[in-house]
Write a structure and sequence with these properties.
The complex is a heterotrimer of chains A (92), B (331) and C (102).
Chain A lengths: L1 H24 L3 H25 L5 H11 L2 H20 L1
Helix pairs in contact in A: 1-2, 2-3
Chain B lengths: L1 H22 L3 H21 L3 H29 L25 H23 L8 H7 L8 H9 L1 H20 L14 H24 L7 H17 L10 H26 L10 H25 L10 H4 L4
Helix pairs in contact in B: 1-2, 2-3, 3-9, 6-7, 7-10, 7-11, 8-9, 9-11, 10-11
Chain C lengths: L1 H27 L3 H25 L4 H32 L10
Helix pairs in contact in C: 1-2, 2-3
The chains are: A mainly alpha (92), B mainly alpha (331), C mainly alpha (102).
């Protein structure tokens, strides 16, 4: 059964790798940021699956920290893009 | 079999990601790839049965670095003309394409150097005895005297405490350097923060403080510690800044300075006390070691968190800029 | 006991298609707004199923509670991220995709 969970984790990993295409292609920075946010969710799933499959319960804390910090970069990105818009308005 | 497939996928994608992020010409794209690289690193550490490092990577590598790098990009974009698009271009392919860089002599020298380094590393990995256990035995033999039951914390705070002392010193030094740059441009917007972000922050920040405390406490017997907890606490501070809740801005400057230096000061004080008592720096008596470590880590947690938030916001919190009370729809 | 384990495995497996759907949506949907759906719906449901499946087999109720807590936190983060990203995209002037205009 642990093999099964490892297989599920591998499946999710392949999902992330496929999703990297969106990061590379864009076209806007919003798309790239979104992809990173999505990978955060998938990453949490991989971590909890690994915790069960490898019998390392401490990994749950890693998942917890991931979940807590997963929105920080996106929030920072959004706030900064607002500021940038204003900045470019001034320079125009 | 499946383990092997997992490992090989992780290794190859990690190398591929590293290459992509180094080769990216769009800085924003490179930052996103760096965040994803941090995620993969955390997964690799988890797979290697190193939850301590995975925790640090999740908190700092994947979580906080993204925000820190975005802030730096924003600032560098402001100082240089024509970089506006870099910070998040709207149009496709908005990244700056540098002119065809010719391979000059410096590049060639660097290439030789890097190939030499990589070759040495491969050679070292090749000739290393396969059953090398490192210092595990020595650490296990002395765990009784360390005052904690998590070997990683024992090494970081007891056996090689001076390393950690210097690390906290480096962080403090970084903050002093950033502050000496003068008033860095602030990027936080004057626009209303939005009720959703506000509510999210209010829900999450108390919980982050709780988890930071939990990680600090857990560090004595399980993965965790001051750096991981400090990063989570710093994330709470960054979130407060981003949601325009003026809690940090209202702290007096003297208090902020004192708190930023607290971790290093306490660590140094304890170290010199031990030097007086036993003639060796950071040589705790086994009976009290646990208490000393907890004291040092608590002080370090606060300093690490504050320094990271200050690095994010450019060395100081701008006062008077964000009248949060006026805009706060709740009040 | 066996039944609970089987149910847990079933739930974890049931979560997988949602992740696949999320990735497909990220890759195939035409614009930011539609991709937001893939991101904040499919994946979070997938994570919910995985977490539920693992929580059923957790060694203690504390461990199960921690798993569920992780899910709640990710839900919160995704929902907030989705909202502010959509707002910022509108603010920037990105037009929502429309089949008739294509």
């Amino acid at each position: 059964m642990n093999k099964l969970y490892l297989f599920a984790a591998l499946f999710l990993l392949v999902n992330i790798i496929a999703g990297l295409f969106r990061v590379l292609r864009g076209p806007t920075s919003i798309d790239r940021m979104l992809a990173a946010q999505l990978f955060g969710t998938t990453g949490v799933a991989i971590i909890v699956l690994l915790a069960e499959a490898l019998a390392i319960p401490e990994l749950h804390d890693v998942g917890l920290v991931f979940a807590l910090l997963s929105a920080i970069s996106t929030v920072a990105f959004v706030k900064m893009s607002y500021a940038q818009k204003e900045g470019s308005d001034v320079s125009d | 079999m499946i383990e092997f497939a997992m490992d090989i996928t992780l290794v190859i994608s990690l190398l591929w990601l590293a290459w992509l992020l180094l080769a990216a010409q769009d800085m924003f794209k490179a930052i996103i790839l760096f965040i994803i690289f941090g995620l993969f690193m955390a997964l690799v550490w988890a797979r290697l049965n190193a939850p301590d490092v995975a925790l640090a990577e999740a908190a700092i590598g994947s979580g906080l670095s993204g925000a820190l790098l975005l802030a730096s990009l924003r600032r560098s974009g402001e100082s240089g003309a024509g970089n506006e698009q870099r910070a998040g271009g709207l149009e496709p392919g908005s990244g700056i394409t540098p002119g065809s860089a010719t391979l000059n002599i410096t590049h060639r020298l660097l290439t030789v150097l890097i190939i030499g380094l990589a070759g040495t590393l491969v050679w070292a990995a090749w000739v290393m005895p396969p059953q090398h256990s490192g210092l595990t035995e020595q650490v296990t033999a002395r765990m009784q005297r360390s005052g904690v039951s998590n070997p990683v914390t024992a090494v970081l705070l007891n056996f090689r405490g001076y390393d950690t002392l210097l690390e906290i010193g480096v962080l403090l030094l970084a903050l002093i350097c950033v502050r000496s740059l003068g008033a860095l441009p602030q990027f936080l917007t004057l626009r209303p923060p939005g009720m959703v972000l506000m509510a999210f922050t209010r829900l999450l920040v108390p919980f982050m403080v709780l988890v930071a405390g939990y990680l600090l406490w857990a560090g004595a017997h399980a993965p965790g510690g001051a750096f991981q907890g400090g990063a989570v606490l710093a994330a709470a501070g960054v979130l407060l800044l981003l949601a325009d809740i003026g809690l940090l801005q209202s702290c007096p400057e003297r208090l902020l300075r004192a708190l930023a230096a607290l971790g290093f000061t306490v660590f140094l004080l304890v170290a010199s006390m031990m030097l007086q008592a036993s003639g060796q720096i950071l040589n705790y008596t086994p009976a009290r070691a646990g208490a000393w470590i907890l004291l040092i880590e608590s002080a370090a947690l606060i300093s690490i968190a504050l320094i990271l938030v200050l690095l994010f916001s450019g060395g100081r919190f701008e006062k008077g800029r964000v009248p949060a009370q006026e805009r706060d729809p709740v009040q | 006991m066996f039944l609970i384990e089987a149910l847990g495995v079933l739930l974890v497996l049931a979560g997988m298609p949602f992740f696949l759907a999320g990735t497909l949506g990220l890759l195939r949907f035409p614009d930011v707004y539609t991709r937001l759906h893939a991101l904040t719906k499919a994946d979070n449901l997938g994570l919910g199923l995985v977490v539920l499946g693992l929580a059923l087999q957790a060694s203690s109720w504390q461990a199960a509670a921690k798993l569920l807590l992780i899910w709640v936190l990710v839900l919160l983060a995704s929902a907030t991220a989705c909202h502010i990203v959509a707002r910022s995209a509108l603010h920037r002037g990105l037009k929502p995709w429309n089949r008739k205009e294509q």
